[in-house]
Each structure stands twice: as C-alpha cells, then as structure tokens.
Design a protein that fits this description.
Blueprint: H1 9-16, E1 22-25, H2 32-49, E2 52-56, E3 67-69, E4 76-81, H3 84-92, E5 97-100, H4 116-124, E6 131-133, H5 139-143, E7 152-153
Parallel strand pairs: 1-2, 2-3, 3-4, 4-5, 5-6, 6-7
Length: 194
C-alpha cells in the first residue's frame, strides 16, 4: 500500500519487496498530474522488479496496472473488508483478493478497533478468495497469524525507512505467514484466478 507518508522511502520499499509481490498505488493527496507521473515511475520500477501494480481510485493513471482496488474493472480486482458482511459483498462483486483490516492497531486508522487474531479468524473462515492482512502488520505480526489461512500481508509503515523493516531481523525476505508465496494472480478470460 502506498501513500504520501512514505515520502522517498517508497523507492526503497519497492526494491525490498519480493518478486511477485503486489503494490496498491494510492497517493490520493497528489494532483492528478503528479499522481500520474508518480504512478508511471512506480510502474517502471515494478516492471524491472517483477511486481504487480494495482491502482486505487477511480481515475485511470496510465499503462502498467494489473487491476484496481475497491471497484470492479478488467484485470485483477482487490477489495477492502472490515467485516464479514463487507467481505461477502466484495466476493459477490467479483473480488480476486481481500485486504482485511485493521488486524492490529495502525497509524492509518488511529483509534479504530483492531480485529486481532480471533476476530480475524472468524471473519475470514471459509472465504473463497485469498485474504491479505492489513493494519499494523510487520513480519512479526504476520508470523502470529500462521494457521489462520491468511494468504499474505500488506503494510505501509513496515516498509518505510523510519520504521524497522522486515529485512532488519536478519531474514532476507519479508515472506507471508501462509504456506503460499505472496503474489497476485490475474483473472483469466474464463473467470478463473490464475
């Protein structure tokens, strides 16, 4: 997940993401021209690094997006979910993956009630799409979710230079808690997620 708080640490974060990871490009606070220019730079790095870029927001920003976040459109479609009801609604709308949040306390939503492990487990039980944990996530928190069926994790602060990032633990990659590797799949012409 990107936003303005990342500043120049965005570039280091893109370099640290494992090949096949996804980037949800947000940066809503920029003017349309600035947002398109930054999106083009992010896509350039993503192509070189083998990352998948998902656009958040209604306005198309240029070439290179693999899909969109929080709306139905051609390509990969991800949705946010803060409750079981939102998750079911998103799946019915065609979500290929869900970002469930806030799992833990987060600066992005100060004061919001975090789900925690137990409520997260209940919320995602039996869902038919990959679930990506969001909200207060870092490598340590991701490890605590093992066994819940979470596909992967997403973050903002965990990737910024002002916060400890996953590689500082001595582990060479910020792998997800689930057995599956973190990567985004694309919906094929027959509607199957690949």
């Amino acid at each position: 997940m990107t936003d303005e708080r990342m500043g120049d640490s965005l570039w280091g974060a893109l370099e640290r993401l494992p090949r096949g990871s996804g980037v949800v490009f947000r940066h809503y606070g920029l003017s349309p021209a600035e947002r398109r220019a930054l999106f083009a730079r992010v896509v350039k790095v993503a192509r070189r690094r083998g990352l998948v870029v998902i656009r958040a927001g209604a306005e198309r920003l240029g070439r290179g997006e693999a899909g969109v976040h929080a709306q139905r459109a051609p390509g990969l479609c991800t949705f946010p979910a803060h409750s079981r009801r939102e998750a079911i609604r998103a799946i019915r709308a065609g979500a290929d993956a869900l970002f469930v949040s806030p799992v833990f306390a987060t600066r992005s939503h100060p004061g919001a009630r975090a789900l925690g492990r137990a409520r997260l487990g209940l919320l995602i039980r039996g869902l038919r799409v990959p679930v990506i944990a969001l909200g207060g996530m870092d490598k340590r928190q991701a490890r605590s979710l093992r066994g819940l069926g979470v596909y992967g994790w997403a973050a903002i602060d965990a990737w910024t230079s002002t916060h400890r990032h996953p590689r500082e633990s001595g582990d060479p990659s910020p792998t997800p808690p689930a057995n599956a590797p973190v990567h985004f799949a694309a919906r094929s012409g027959d509607g199957q997620v690949r």
